[in-house]
Design a protein that fits this description.
With 91 residues, the protein is mainly β. It has a single domain, classed as OB fold (Dihydrolipoamide Acetyltransferase, E2P) (Beta Barrel), CATH 2.40.50. It contains one helix and seven strands; from the N terminus they run βαββββββ. Strands 2-3-4-7-6-5 form a six-stranded antiparallel beta barrel. The radius of gyration is 12 Å and the shape is globular. The protein starts with a strand and ends in an 8-residue tail after the last strand.
């Protein structure tokens, strides 16, 4: 198991992310507004996430939507989806 710096990530999020490595989705940061981060996914679509991660615009990231985690480099942060690719709010 790889060791990553974790910020506000719960143990269950780490377990879920490690148990389903195929769910990670690569993307690029396209916007940031306070704690809302927009990620354009390389396999199509986009996500708006609530997170304390602060990557630069254009920076590559990986998102695990099931575990609600975003990886910026080797650091993991909690990241709750606020809206999906069509802008529809998530409940």
């Amino acid at each position: 198991m790889a060791h990553h710096a974790r910020t506000d990530v719960l143990p269950i999020q780490t377990i879920v992310a490690n148990a389903s490595p195929g769910a990670w989705r690569d993307g690029l940061v396209t916007a940031r507004d306070q704690d809302a981060l927009t990620v354009l996914l390389l396999d199509g679509g986009a996500l708006v996430l609530s997170t304390s991660a602060a990557p630069e615009l254009g920076e590559p990231v990986a998102v695990h939507p099931v575990a609600e985690v975003i990886a910026v480099g080797s650091a993991w942060y909690s990241a709750r989806a606020l809206a999906d690719h069509d802008g529809a709010p998530r409940s």
